[in-house]
Amino acid sequence: MIERFGVKQCKNVAIIMDGNGRWATERTHRRVWGHVRGSSVVSDIVESADDLCVESLTLYAFSTENWCRPEFEVKTLFKLLKKFLLKERAKLLKNNIKFRVIGDWSRLPEETKLLIADLQETTKDFTGLKLTFAFGYGGRSEIVNSVKKLVESGKEITEENLSDSLYAPDIKDIDLLIRTGGDQRISNFLLWQCAYAELYFTETRWPAFTREEFESIIFNVENRERRFGAVSCMESLESTKKLAEQNGSLFS
Ligand code: FPP
Fold first, then answer.
1. When comparing pLDDT for 248 and 177, which is higher?
2. What is the pLDDT of residues 142-175, one digit of tens each?
3. Known catalytic membership, residue 18
4. CB of residue 100 inside a 6 A radius of ligand 1
5. Structural domain boundaries of the chain?
6. Cα 136 to middle of ligand 1, angstroms
7. d(Cα 91, Cα 87) in Å, to the nearest integer?
8. Which terminus of the chain, N or C, has fewer Cβ atoms within 10 Å?
9. Dist. CA 30 → ligand 1 center (Å)
10. Is the pLDDT of residue 110 over 70?
């Protein structure tokens, strides 16, 4: 957590952008219309995360399971990714945003792969918001992949080494995982990185998600206390003080 204007703030945020299909069918549109509207929400939320000085934003854009969707839907998602890359490129560069795609994106069209590779290379040393799209991504595959890398390199299998071999090692532990669309699951997203994440589920379908809701989640959740299995700072301080009173002052 970082602190801005005296308020604690989540540094590493991830979002499962769910509910596109339902949003569209509830409005008697085809499912893909939800993805189209959802992709403009992506641009708004990236802008908001950047404004809020979030350190990293990781978005679940396409899971390994999504390959089973109808071809038209898969192709539409590919096209939306390409459109995003073309449309937002200048803004990402201007705002010093480091862009990456994690997962197996080898099945994307050649032109899109080139756009990703170029944007990743151009922004690799940028120091602003770390924006990561998970595309063709699965959390279990990522962990297996990381273990394989360690075995091949002969390094010891430790938590630290495993973290360092993930797809994007500089995305540290996720502070906050948001899922839109009403379901309360993690769905194979950032399994390793979410070990201590605060989870926030909203009924709002992704295409209806707004900057305002994002900002209010960030500011509300960040003031929940995270103890990582330990006692809270206040509890710990209180018990230390009590001990000091019992045993003569430790502070004098
Ligand atoms: C889940 O909704 C969402 C996805 C499978 C894809 C998320 C993609 C976008 C937000 C647009 C892509 C944009 C970019 C820039 C990559 P769902 O279809 O599973 O919704 P449902 O649960 O209502 O069926």
1. 177
2. 999 999 999 999 999 999 999 999 999 988 899 9
3. yes
4. no
5. 12-249
6. 13
7. 8
8. C
9. 13
10. yes
Residue that has been written with the tokens 């532990």 in this structure: 173
Runs of H (alpha helix) within the chain:
20-25, 31-51, 71-94, 110-123, 139-153, 159-164, 211-221, 233-246
Query: What's the residue count for the chain?
Result: 252
Convert 39-78 to b/e letters by CB count within 10 Å (16 or more is b): bebbeebbbbbbebebbbbbbbbbbbeeeebeeebeebbb
Range with the poorest average pLDDT among 51-60, 103-112, 216-225: 216-225
From the CA of 23, give the closest atom in ligand 1.
Answer: 23
Known catalytic residue at 66: yes
Q: How far apart are CA 177 and CA 201, in angstroms?
A: 8
* Cα gap 11→70, rounded to integer Å: 36
Residue with CA closest to ligand 1 atom 12: 39
Average pLDDT across the chain, whole number: 89
Q: Which atom of ligand 1 is nearest to the CA of 77?
A: 12
Whether residue 181 has its Cβ less than 6 Å from ligand 1: yes
Say yes or no: CB of residue 17 within 6 Å of ligand 1: yes
Residue 93 and residue 17 in contact, taking contact as beta carbons nearer than 8 Å: no
From 12, 44, 66, 118, the catalytic residue: 66
Residue range 23-33, pLDDT digits in tens: 999 999 999 99
CA end-to-end span of the chain, whole Å?
Answer: 32
Which CATH number is correct for 12-249, 3.40.1180.10, 1.10.10.60, 2.60.40.10, 3.40.50.2000? 3.40.1180.10
